[in-house]
């Protein structure tokens, strides 16, 4: 990601967290970043595309962090511990991202559905770890 | 134990952690130990 795109990404994340997606305009984003609208549209075709990119990148980071940690853990309890710790660290470092995920996940808008899709993928990772642990305890 | 329900509980912990961070100073180690003691340990039983 080049510097301008990253700045748009980070500024949008902050504004979406502070004011909500609907409360944030493209003009506010470009003003806060210090670029012209044309520059923003070079990187993202719409506010919705910024949002989708934000959610996708954030959830990718979360899932990749978990997958890396999971490889080092054998017991399912230690895997759950790793997930809890990663969640706390992500919240500590990327508070705005988590705030957006929690607040935009509700409703039937395309945006909400996008959020829900990624959250469900994340929940499935956790569920599979739990199920694996439960199955092992039964055998 | 229902794996699906537990998974949403763990996700819910993240939500409550976010609220905690917004209202108090988040000390990662302290928060992690509390969750481990009150939630993870109970799963071992």
Structure explained in plain terms:
The complex is a heterodimer of chains A (about 140) and B (about 45). Chain A is mostly helical and about 140 residues long. Chain A contains seven helices and no strands. Chain A has helices spanning about 5-20, 25-35, 35-45, 45-70, 75-95, 95-105, 110-139. In chain A, α1 (about 5-20) crosses α2, α1 (about 5-20) crosses α4 and α4 packs parallel to α7 (about 110-139). The longest helix of chain A has 29 residues, at about 110-139. The N and C termini of chain A lie far apart (about 45 Å). By secondary structure, chain B is mainly alpha-helical. Chain B has a domain at about 20-45. Chain B contains two helices and no strands. Chain B has helices spanning about 5-25, 30-45. The longest helix of chain B is centred in the first third of the chain and has 21 residues, at about 5-25. Chain B is flat.
Number of helices of chain B: 2
Query: What is the string of SSEs of chain A from the N terminus onward?
Result: HHHHHHH
Mean pLDDT metric of chain B: 87
* Low confidence ranges of chain A: none
Helix content of chain A: over 70%
CATH topology of chain A: Tetracycline Repressor, domain 2
Alpha-carbon Rg of chain A, integer: 18 Å
Q: What general form of chain A does the structure show?
A: elongated
Instruction: Give the largest chain-chain interface (CB within 8 Å).
Output: A-B, 26 and 25 residues
Global structural class of chain A: mainly alpha
Q: Could you give the distance between the termini of chain A? A: 47 Å
Question: If you average the pLDDT of chain A, what whole number results?
Answer: 90
The count of β-strands of chain B is: 0
CATH homology group of chain A: Tetracycline Repressor, domain 2
């Amino acid at each position: 990601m080049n510097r301008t795109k990253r700045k748009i990404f980070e500024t949008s994340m902050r504004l979406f967290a502070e004011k909500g997606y609907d409360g944030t305009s493209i003009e506010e984003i470009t003003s806060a970043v210090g670029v012209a609208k044309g520059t923003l549209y070079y990187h993202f075709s719409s506010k919705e595309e910024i949002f989708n990119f934000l959610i996708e990148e954030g959830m990718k980071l979360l899932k990749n962090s978990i997958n890396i940690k999971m490889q080092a853990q054998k017991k399912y309890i230690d895997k759950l511990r790793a997930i809890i710790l990663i969640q706390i660290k992500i919240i500590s470092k990327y508070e705005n991202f988590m705030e957006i995920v929690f607040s935009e996940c509700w409703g039937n808008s395309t945006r909400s559905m996008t959020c829900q899709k990624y959250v469900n993928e994340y929940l499935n990772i956790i569920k599979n770890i739990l199920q694996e642990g439960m199955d092992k305890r039964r055998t | 134990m229902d794996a699906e329900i537990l998974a949403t509980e763990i996700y819910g912990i993240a939500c409550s952690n976010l609220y905690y961070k917004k209202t108090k100073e988040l000390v990662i180690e302290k928060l992690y130990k509390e969750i481990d003691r009150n939630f993870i340990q109970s799963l071992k039983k």
